[in-house]
Amino acid sequence: MFCDSRSNKVLDFYRGSTVLVAGGTGFVGKALLEKILRSLDVKKVYLLVRKKCGVCAEDRLRQLLEDRLFDQMREQVKKVEAVEVDYDLECFGLDDDVAEMLQKEVESVFYCVADVSFNRPLKEAFQTNVLIGKYMLKWCLSFPNLRSFVHTSTFYSECTKNFVDEKIADDLPFGSYKLCMKMLTSLSSEECENIRDSMLGDYPNTYTFTKKLAEIMIQKEFAGDLPIGVYRPPVVSPTYREPQPGWTDNMFGVGSFISSKFDGVGRVILGDLNQISNNAPLDCCVNAMLVCGYDVSLRRSSCCQSEPELTVYNHVSKMSKCTNGDVLRYMAESRSSFWQRWDWKYLFTSTTTKWIYYYLLHLCYWYAGLKDLVTVRLKGANGRDHYHYRRSLKHFASYNQAVAFAMCRSWSSYNKNLINLKRHLNEKELEMFYFDLDDVDWPQYIKSCVDGISLLLHKQL
């Protein structure tokens, strides 16, 4: 049974409220900001933005809002205000008056800060994925009107297990949470690299390990004091419906495979084509985050326990049978010409054996180098164009190797905490905040992704 059609639970929760977004200039944060402005009648949105490459926060916000993503909401963007921060400092180096203003006004926080480069040095990944989050949560303890805090983690924080539950366990491979925190805080970057393999254990990279560590930190140090929930998406890919089908601003995820196909150099894949593909469209992720924010507040207000349980939301499909091979087939079928369909469908191979993969990849680099040479000879290309195909293949191969752990196996999981939220939504909100991955039309979606990547590549030429 769904709730009464006259009751807009999520819309009413955010109406007239002040929202703070940390990490709002990234892929997920940008789409989250757009959805808030387009669908929610909020009072104000504060965006925490770092000064980067000499560009101040206000100028970075101005550049962000120039994206075609915000073309239809030039009036609403007036609600957005950039707040310049230094994430390396507690309270982020804010002036006292700015910090006090945010403490008084902010009611909902969405935390999207992350270093998604999977194999950063351990110390660097720890500082970004754990310490900054800890500083943020400590600061939020001083927010008297805080109603919800949604921390964006990853489904792969539990990738060492066969079954991913909606719970957090202190079962780090190197030892206890306190020991890991103490060592990573006190040791130098070089010393952390020396113990990296021992500390990671079965974790495939520093990204998944530090996201797991951050979840334990939240549970042990803040779950009893803050209205907080942990949202776990899988691989986030281009949009499904909103604001435009297939929108993306990067070449990661599905986009990496599609762009390599356009260049004709992505001929070998490290992965199992029979395993289920764990992708979540960006707009489904954003919708889920907003509904999670409402649910976190609802659970907190109705909880009578002295230490409320931390809620974890796994965002995965329970019914989808779409495999990695299906994704590649849908990509091929999206092309209009017979040659491209044939080329994309048959002129590639896959393997889960690393030495075979690297041997075939070496041949692909030779082929990409030949294409670069021919292009230079025929078209007189210069500068970076000398390495266009090799650069494209390197990007594709680097990403493929990073996510191979997810492409070579599948997981069983619970997703009841998120799916049960559909019962809170009326028909209007179910349509507005769609997030159920079982409802995704995968062939149509992959076609939209191909079109979106094609448009992005055209803009970069």
UniProtKB/TrEMBL annotation:
Keyword terms of this UniProt record: Lipid biosynthesis, Lipid metabolism, NADP, Oxidoreductase
Enzyme Commission number, as recorded: 1.2.1.84
* Catalytic activity annotation: a long-chain fatty acyl-CoA + 2 NADPH + 2 H(+) = a long-chain primary fatty alcohol + 2 NADP(+) + CoA
Q: Which InterPro entries match?
A: FAR, FAR_C, FAR_NAD-bd, NAD(P)-bd_dom_sf
**GO cellular component annotations of the record:** peroxisome
- What is the residue range of the signal peptide feature? none
Q: Pfam families per the record? A: NAD_binding_4, Sterile
Quote the Gene3D superfamilies the UniProt record gives.
NAD(P)-binding Rossmann-like Domain (3.40.50.720)
Limits of the Thioester reductase (TE) domain? 21-289
Domain named Fatty acyl-CoA reductase C-terminal is located at 391-459
As for family, the record states: Belongs to the fatty acyl-CoA reductase family.
What is this protein's function? Catalyzes the reduction of fatty acyl-CoA to fatty alcohols.
Name under which the protein is recorded: Fatty acyl-CoA reductase
Organism, scientific name: Aedes aegypti (Yellowfever mosquito)
What lineage is this protein's organism placed in?
A: Eukaryota, Metazoa, Ecdysozoa, Arthropoda, Hexapoda
